[in-house]
Amino acid sequence: PLLANTLKGYYSVMANLYRWAIREGYTAVNPVEPAQSRWFILNTPTLDRARRNPRKRNLEMEEVTALVRNMPIHMAALVALCSTCFLRVHEGVKISLDPAFFNFEEGWIILPDDPFFGDKRKGNERLIITPSLRPVLARYMKWREQRVRRKPDGTPVTDKLILHSRGDQCGESFQENINKYVHKHAIRLGLM
Hints:
Layout: H1 4-24, H2 32-51, H3 61-70, H4 73-85, H5 89-92, E1 102-103, E2 108-110, E3 126-128, H6 134-147, H7 172-188
Antiparallel strand pairs: 1-2, 2-3
Helix pairs in contact: 1-2, 3-4, 4-6
């Protein structure tokens, strides 16, 4: 069976799709809303428990720093980027080393457009490499240079900044598992 939060997300997406279809004149009714309302009434206790879970909380910056210090560098770089630049995981893994998007010396990163997720960031899309982020990225860049898979001519197979531990570009499974991985390390460090 699916988790309550997963079903909540499915209902939300479907209801929003029908709201759009009504606005655009494709349909007159939203068949999802009655089922969604009944489901929310039946699952309110489960959703409330998940919302109040004491293990699910925001970490303080000192705790994130401890995580970054004690994680493998390929994960630490992503956690440092996400926490310092307020990125979502899917945004962190799409950062490109293309000079049009990344300049370590000048200290900036621009998120490239993402056809799947769209551009949800508002305002300035240039991210600043802060003094606290710079040493983590410098250490990671050395690791990346040694690990990245290369074509027969010696050029890297990917220009993505964040790589999997094997030196490959991160796929969807990496993005899905990062939360579990961070949570596991937070427990190991006694933060959760």
